[in-house]
Write a structure and sequence with these properties.
Number of helices of chain C: 17
CATH architecture of the largest domain in chain C: 3-Layer(aba) Sandwich
Helix content of chain A: 10-25%
Largest sheet of chain A: 6 strands, antiparallel
Number of helices of chain A: 4
Strand content of chain C: 5-15%
Largest sheet of chain C: 7 strands, mixed
CATH architecture of chain A: Beta Barrel
Helix content of chain C: 25-40%
CATH superfamily of chain A: RNA polymerase II/Efflux pump adaptor protein, barrel-sandwich hybrid domain
Shape of chain C: globular
Largest interface: B-C, 213 and 207 residues
Distance between the termini of chain C: 70 Å
Strand content of chain A: 35-45%
CATH superfamily of the largest domain in chain C: Type I PLP-dependent aspartate aminotransferase-like (Major domain)
Shape of chain A: globular
CATH topology of chain A: OB fold (Dihydrolipoamide Acetyltransferase, E2P)
Strand order of the largest sheet of chain C: 1-7-6-5-4-2-3
Chains: A alpha+beta (123), B alpha/beta (457), C alpha/beta (527)
Radius of gyration of chain A: 13 Å
Number of domains of chain C: 2
CATH topology of the largest domain in chain C: Aspartate Aminotransferase, domain 2
Oligomer: heterotrimer
Chain lengths: 123, 457, 527
């Protein structure tokens, strides 16, 4: 399992052709209390960078982009009932959706953990 | 000038605090050529209160006031008696001169009122939730069609022939730009074989929603259950439009018959005629669709000390946050008209609304019986509440004008609502509310009879 | 002495035992605090049998309701008239309002609402007429609309106006639809509307609604539209621009004429958001700046009441290029008779109208108020209105900019509103804390966090209807609160302390929305 990060503050954890996607701890901290999450339905097909999910705080609504191209396996239903999971455990229980990858070379353009840490330190 | 408190001495002191010599220096960013040198010359200078009042009275005197003549006009706006306290309440400065309640700690008055309004509207329409109001019924109707498209992800809307033609016109205008497909049709004065069946036949799997009006433009009331069922079978929504909410004191609510979204014109409760606006759009729906709703929503919460309070909520749907992805570009609601509606509804209560509705119905029945006794006049409406359509032996528009010249406002001719539509010219829509008296009905009946005879001669 | 002349034990001075520390702990049985009164909901107070209206009961008739009679309760609660008046009066006292004090809400223009306007709107000849009356019976009403239209055209220097839009955002939609209709008519609908990043949220929402893609134009460091960036982006796909002038930073766009010329040269059209027309009315005519459409918020420039969030009214002035596409209905005059052009006439004369935006003719009740305001001020008074509005805003700007960062203050004067940022506030303190501190000072806060181009924006618009005395008092309070926020006064973080409510939990409200009242479940029902 390898974890990658995007400049839009998504993380993607990859095992073979399958991946889990969520938003980073930094992102949830910037958003504040999350009140609503809309996750994609199974079998939705994304190109890299497409709007994949929506996360809302009281005062902001943000799109979560597909970090790579692929097809959704399932969205995280637990977030519908308890959106606060995104705040309490963003990089664990608060994941957004699982997907299969169509082109694993797209991962090369993403950051690893250290690079992401450096990236947010500069923000 | 009575509304401007600064004196010339104040202005001088303020300019020196700012560090400029003259007011012109504050307009330095405006290019010289864009600035006017003096007051706009084509317009008069300021006027006293007395002068303004005189001018307005002179203009007002050229209008025929509804309350001073036999009055039977409806077709989307209804004349009901508004209790005196309603106007007092909406003129309280703390309501009249407040802003949108974005600072909830000092806007609980407006917010609690909106929460009560939402509850009243939802219960009246038979929906789970309602919003804090829209501009009016016609814009609420289009917003509902647009919302159904977001929910079903389909673009074909079927609009029943009974929907107010101006509402259809608004929807057509908007659909032209959004690419929605609207199926529309015209009503008829001769009993159609089975109007409901025609609508049912149109519903298919591409249908996003079916829009019906209840009571409809001709005054008909019909059970909506079969249409709701068929729509739901095809994963389409039923949108019901109510232009006369007083009716819901007497008849089943659209929500109870399966409507998914119910919109309405709230004008007839508390707001008054006002020549068409401002009015107040009602908007309710099933709870599961709440995040797709347009407009403002007020919700209950607690404050930092645990006391119940109210806030505007789910605002991420709205334009000031979602910008180009908002559910609607709507910004204002119709707050003060919502207050008028809510205060009037509070004065009426359950019992008052039901009594009022029955008085309306009884007067309408009385008027219908009297008018249909005139030779050549036929009833063109089946079941009805306080409004019905008559088929006259000649062009109703000319008759309406003749009667208006005799100071009787007889109703709305279908010729005006449906220009150049064959077979409708002889239709006259008549509304009878509690404000109509027996002698008004007599006056209308006699004048109508005379006019028909005169026309035939 | 007569026994009754003695004071019966009533003390004539405050007891030494009374002191401030005791006051904190005082609670009341009711939960009220003297004049600060809580009020239950109608549904908790009233009953289904109570009614505050006497209705003349009629003899029953044979029903024509066709079996659709309501067969279950609606669930409404009624109150008597005395309870109703008290209910709303108590609620009203929990609201801040212009009638109570200065309301410095930038971009919203909260100015005094003259009561003459209310009186004029209630003249029966305007308030008690039906929109579908024969036009021969409403000649005075149509004349009033025509007269207001004339003033609006003259003040803006534009040839036409559409009166029916119901609010500012509806007016924006009207303008953009007219642009789209005009472009479609020449067979070139185009795809993109350019909007500056400082724009009101309604601008991109409106453009998207009309089927356009929205692209942002950056601002210069001086807070204006970056004209070079705009010029570079113009092309055959750009339908037009939407520009607010004066803009939402409270600054006039000095290159507006140039922008219009550039857009026109590229085949596009210019929409001007007229939300801030109040800053220039009577001094500048937007028509002289080359625009094609502009909505006018009657509640901002012409002081129709905000009413706690509407109703508004948003007439749209149009250039010659757009006038033929104006929506129905509209008023025309011939041979001293006013006509209302509805679907019928438009069908017969090959009109290019893009359609209808609302069921009837627009916000008549707002037209009467706006005309009353305009006549009261006249051409001379309206010029004074914009000058005093700009003077008051600059007075606040220069009375605060030594203490609070004014990002565009160094480049010159502002127009009708002064913009500040949260730069320099203590760590952990934000604009919202300044806002809530102002509430305790007895003011409605300024607009916060808008426009988005300035961090922690505070947008202050005093309007022309404030006296110097009122401005000085406000400045004193504003300086006091900002000083606290810069010094890190912790009491500010829990402000307001003296409002009817403390800060409200908006997160809880949004996570589990409660949008209507439901009867509490009784013990029996719960079983």
């Amino acid at each position: 399992m390898v974890r990658y990060y995007t400049e839009d503050h998504e993380w993607i954890e990859v095992e073979d052709d399958n991946a889990i996607v969520g938003i980073t701890d930094y992102a949830q901290g910037q958003l504040g209390d999350v009140v609503f999450v809309e996750t994609p339905t199974a079998e939705t097909i994304f190109a890299k960078g497409d709007d994949a999910a929506v996360v809302e705080s009281v005062k902001a609504a943000s799109d979560v982009y597909a970090p790579v191209s692929g097809e959704v396996i399932k969205g995280n239903d637990a977030l519908v009932e308890d959106p606060a999971l995104v705040n309490s455990d963003p990089e664990g229980e608060g994941w957004f959706f699982k997907m299969t990858l169509t082109d694993s070379t797209e991962l090369d353009a993403l950051m690893d953990e250290d690079a992401y840490k450096e990236f947010i330190a500069d923000l | 000038m009575r509304y401007l408190p600064l004196s010339d001495m104040d202005r001088g002191q303020m300019l020196s605090k700012i560090g400029v010599q003259s007011i012109d220096e504050l307009f330095v960013d405006v290019p010289q050529e864009a600035q006017l040198t003096g007051p706009i010359r084509e317009l008069p200078n300021h006027a006293s209160e007395m002068a303004v009042e005189r001018h307005f009275q002179a203009l007002a005197a050229k209008n025929t006031v509804a309350g001073q003549v036999p009055f039977f006009i409806g077709a989307g706006a209804y004349r009901h008696h508004v209790p005196a306290s309603v106007d007092h309440i909406i003129q309280r400065g703390e309501f009249l001169t407040a802003y949108t309640p974005y600072q909830p700690e000092i806007a609980q008055g407006t917010l609690q009122m909106l929460f009560e309004f939402q509850t009243q509207v939802a219960r009246l329409l038979g929906t789970d939730v309602a919003n804090a109001s829209m501009y009016d019924g016609s814009t609420a109707c289009w917003e509902a069609i647009s919302m159904a498209g977001r929910i079903t992800k389909k673009k074909k809307a079927i609009i029943s022939a009974g929907v107010h033609p101006h509402y259809v016109s608004v929807a057509n205008t908007m659909a032209r730009f959004t690419g929605d497909e609207l199926l529309t049709s015209l009503p008829t004065l001769d009993a159609p074989l089975n109007p409901e069946q025609e609508l049912l036949n149109q519903i298919d799997s591409d249908t996003s929603c079916v829009i019906v009006q209840y009571p409809d433009i001709l005054g008909n009331i019909n059970d909506l259950s079969a249409i709701a069922n068929k729509a739901h079978e095809h994963k389409a929504l039923l949108i019901a439009v109510v232009t006369e909410p007083v009716a819901l004191g007497a008849i089943k609510s659209p929500g109870d018959m399966g409507a998914d979204i119910v919109v309405g014109e709230g004008q007839s409760i508390g707001v008054g005629l006002q020549f068409g606006g401002p009015y107040v759009g009602l908007f309710g729906c099933k709870a599961k669709y709440v995040r797709q709703m347009p407009g403002r929503l007020c919700g209950e919460t607690v404050d930092a000390t645990g006391k119940r309070g109210f806030v505007l909520t789910l605002s991420t749907r709205e334009q000031h946050i979602r910008r180009d992805k908002a559910t609607s570009n709507i910004c204002t609601n119709s707050g003060l008209c919502a207050l008028a509606f809510s205060a009037h509804m509070t004065l009426l209560g359950e019992k008052g609304l039901r009594d009022l509705a029955m008085v309306n119905h009884a007067k309408a029945v009385k008027a219908a019986d009297r008018l249909c006794a005139i030779d050549g006049v036929e009833m063109a409406t089946g079941h009805y509440f306080n409004e019905f359509t008559l088929k006259l032996p000649r062009d109703a528009r000319a008759i309406v004008q003749e009667l208006a010249d005799q100071n009787i406002l007889a109703g709305v001719s279908l010729g005006r609502l449906y220009p150049k539509s064959e077979g409708l010219d002889n239709g006259l829509i008549i509304a009878v509310t509690e404000t109509v008296q027996d002698e008004d009905i007599e006056a209308l009946a006699n004048a109508l009879e005379a006019s028909i005879k005169g026309g035939a001669a | 002495m007569n026994e009754r002349d003695l004071n019966q034990g009533r003390p004539s001075r405050i007891s030494d035992a009374a002191n401030d520390s005791a006051i904190e702990a005082v609670t009341t049985f009711s939960g009220n605090k003297a004049l600060m009164l809580d009020e239950p909901l109608i549904f908790e107070l009233g009953s289904s049998e109570t009614c505050g209206v006497d209705i003349d009961v009629m003899e029953p008739v044979e029903s024509r309701l066709g079996g659709l009679e309501r067969n279950k309760p609606i669930g409404l609660a009624g109150l008597s008239e005395s309870e109703t008046v008290r209910h709303y009066t108590r609620l009203s006292r929990q609201n801040y309002a212009i009638d109570l004090g200065l309301f410095p809400l930038g971009s919203c223009t909260m100015k005094h609402n003259p009561r003459l306007n209310e009186k004029m709107a209630r003249v029966a000849g305007f308030s008690d007429i039906h929109p579908m009356q024969p036009v021969s019976t409403v000649q005075g009403a149509l004349e009033l609309i025509d007269e207001l239209a004339h003033w609006l055209k003259t003040l803006t220097g534009m040839p036409a106006v559409a009166m029916s839009p119901k609010a500012g955002a509806h007016g924006e939609l009207c303008g953009i639809l007219a642009i789209r209709a005009a472009l479609e008519a020449r067979g070139d609908a185009r795809e993109v509307i350019l909007v500056p990043e400082s724009a009101h949220g309604t601008n991109p929402a409106t453009a998207a609604f009309a089927g356009y893609r929205v692209e942002e134009i950056p601002a210069t460091e001086g807070g204006r539209v970056d004209v070079d960036a705009l010029a570079a982006r113009l092309g055959p796909d750009v339908a037009g621009v939407m520009i607010t002038n004066p803009n939402t930073c409270g600054l006039f766009e000095p290159d507006m004429r140039k922008i219009s010329d550039l857009v026109h040269a590229a085949g596009g059209l210019v929409y001007c958001d007229g939300a801030n027309f109040n800053a220039i009315v009577g001094r500048v005519r937007p028509g002289d700046l080359g625009i094609d459409a502009m909505h006018i918020n009657l509640h901002k420039t012409f002081s129709t009441p905000h009413g706690g969030g509407g109703p508004g009214s948003g007439p749209v002035v149009l250039s010659e290029a757009l006038a033929p596409y104006a929506p129905l209905p509209y008023v025309t005059k011939s041979d001293d008779f006013f006509h209302l052009i509805e679907e019928e006439q438009s069908l017969s004369d090959d009109s290019d109208t893009f359609g209808r935006m609302t069921a009837f003719h627009g916000q008549m009740g707002m037209f009467t108020r706006a005309l009353s305001y305009i006549m009261s001020h006249g051409a001379d008074g309206l010029k004074q209105v914009s000058e005093d509005a700009v003077l008051n805003a600059n007075y606040i700007l220069r009375s605060m900019d030594d203490l609070l960062d004014a990002p565009f203050g160094h480049s010159g004067p502002c127009m009708h509103e002064a913009l500040f940022s949260d730069k320099g506030l203590a760590d952990g303190f934000s604009t919202i804390d300044v806002s809530k501190g102002l509430i305790d000072e007895g003011y409605h806060p300024m607009t916060m966090y808008f426009p988005l181009v300035v961090h922690g924006a505070m947008l202050v618009e005093p309007t022309e209807t404030e006296s110097k005395h009122a401005l000085d008092n406000f400045i004193g309070s504003f300086r006091n609160v900002v000083t606290k926020a810069k010094e890190g006064d912790m009491s500010l973080l829990s402000a307001p302390h003296f409002a009817p409510r403390a800060r409200l939990d908006e997160t809880a409200a949004a996570r589990k929305p409660i949008l209507v009242w439901n009867e509490p479940e009784t013990a029996e029902a719960a079983e």
